[in-house]
Amino acid sequence: MTSNSTADHGARLADRIASATGADPRDRLLHARGGWAAGTFTPSPLAPPLSTAGLFAAPATSATARFSSTLGGPHGHDGAPSDHGLAVRIGGLDLVLFTLPVFFARTGADMVEFLRAANSGDPAAVPAYAAAHPEAAEALALAQQGRPAAGFTGLEYHSAHAFGLVNAVGTTRWARLGLRPHRPLPPLTAEEALARPRDYLTAGLPTELPAGFDLLAHLPEGPDEVHDPTRRWTSRQTVTLGTLTLSRAEAPAAEPDFDPLRLPPGITAPLDRLAADRSAAYAAARRLRA
Ligand code: HEM
To answer: Which 3 state secondary structure label does DSSP give 105?
Structure first.
């Protein structure tokens, strides 16, 4: 796609997300509730042999992170069933992650179809989406098992896509990237969560810091579908690429324009369609917000 048609495509997707969810385009169309944190990324010695990216060569790189609740808009309840997001800028890399390890759509158009079904108020609509989209089964089953979070920093966050880690001799290893908490927090019951203030996750973030995460590269094996973000992998092999330490709750002077395709040399873009659709939609959503 040319950059004009990418922008048009993104604008159409953003409009459709707004009309499917009823979101006000002056807010983030999704993940509207959330809070900021600042800290540092420190690489592990296992990272440079996999990727030449600058953040794996420098002793430490500063990081800006935003934790978020996906659904419910700016005034929803943090304890309502939802997944959660974590977007982090570390040097030239944006990691835009959430708590499901796989996604329920392969394209932006399918995502809009799902959002329409989920927001229609018709109890038959999501089952109808699931029947028409068998690829959504794993993510929908995991989303149904989801329990309210006790804190943003106790959750594990995943990329869904596989990124190419390119080393000094040009070898590419595809890997899903994720952030695993050093202090996992057990979930709350629905009653406990709904008894807390509406914004308990965002309001509680400063009290959770400092908090650490391992940046993991999850490597596929034989049967794993590398470029299908809807499918779980059988492989459990992970390499720790470094540690993200978020030390303080702090909003940046200028908000990063998070983009899942903002990648440094040494990390290449996912080959699935979803990543390109996301990138275009985020840029368009930001233009609507500006
Ligand atoms: C085609 C699929 C997707 C579309 C169209 C989409 C769309 C969007 C949009 C429009 C926003 C609001 C952006 C803004 O206003 O700044 C957003 C935010 C976000 N999305 Fe997605 N999304 C998709 C898939 C995903 C996936 C697979 C993940 C995680 C693996 C994810 C994680 C996030 C996060 C963490 C944010 C909040 C970013 C922030 O804090 O600024 N999204 N998404």
So the answer is: coil
